[in-house]
Amino acid sequence: MKDKLFLMIPGPTPVPESVLQATAKHPIGHRSSEFSSILKEVYADLKWFFQTQNDVYIFTASGTGAMDAALSNILNPNDKVLSLVMGNFGERWAKIAKTRGAEVETIDVPWGNAINPDTLKERLAKDVNKEIKVVTLTHNETSTGVMNDIETLCKIIKEHGALSVVDGVTSVGAVPVKTDEWGIDILVSGSQKGFMIPPGLSFLSCSQRAFEAYKNCKYPSFYFDFAAHKKSLEQDTTPFTPNVNLIFGLHKAFEMLKSEGLDAIHARHAKLAKGIRAAIRALGLKLLVEDDAIASRAITSILPPDGVSVPQIRSTLTKDYDIVVANGQGQFKDKIFRIGHLGFVSERDAITAIGALEATLLKLGYNFDSGSGISALIKSLAETKVTA
Ligand SMILES: Cc1ncc(COP(=O)(O)O)c(C=O)c1O
After folding, report:
1. Which residues line ligand 1 (CB under 6 A)?
2. Closest residue (by CA) to atom 14 of ligand 1?
């Protein structure tokens, strides 16, 4: 039905009506005092959302832009980078590092698994001369729906002395990411995820240590230059023309997020993820990530039942029920489908999605006890008193 489409993909995520309206205003001059006072608040709110006292820069770019910014400001040719890879986005860090002429080593785990902290510890222990300068990690690997134990991994990296560069694109706003407490040097995220606004902005928090590495970077990026962003941030502005309207939207979204509160936001994500996982199991479907301890709170990856294909499920959900879920990526294309429950997502949305999934499976001939998914979901939602 026209205008009814609902996104349950891991980004872009749904945008609240009031945020959309905020973005629909006439732009104002980005050097005006009116805009500066909005930016001042947004910069402060970003620190709150990133749980940091570090500067958080704003880039007019998607999440990959912030990833590029991270490495292009701290790496010199031949620097050694260790990339922890467990999916598409972990691979992306390694690819970006190579474009900077870095020597890149990877620790690869099969997609669907998390990084074992002991493996990292062992590798870093062998680096007695402290040659590894940067370790890149993905908090929530969106391509598989696996969440890494970033707290433990970053503490190991800190003990070694390398810089930790973390992709928090689909974890910030879904789960606690304690940037300062966990010693994360660089953390990046993107607007179309837990921030509840459309795509087009990305964010990067930079520790003092990362900024020192920037000072030694021979060829830092021009557009993403850390010093230019730092200087502008201190003057409540941006180095170049930002997407003014998205910043209006972000300002409004932060109003909503702050009134909900960080703990409540994280608890909502945990509750939805738990309920959806219970529903999938009750339907007799297989979760790609069976272990609840490493399961994403932003996205759930599911294998289709025998005799039913991922494209069939996705197209029926969209055509008949106006719900968009994501395909798998890379080696999991057409092997899994992924239900996003990140950002502006409520219990109603989860109930609708599982109901529509049941209706879809019924139409596609899968033999199951209809209503079992919904029943498991609503029971889980009713019973779950989660803290993040
Ligand atoms: C974990 C992760 N990292 C990076 C990205 C890339 O972000 P973008 O598509 O905004 O460039 C995504 C996008 O989905 C993601 O999920």
Report:
1. 10-11, 62-64, 89, 138, 140, 142, 167, 169-170, 190
2. 11
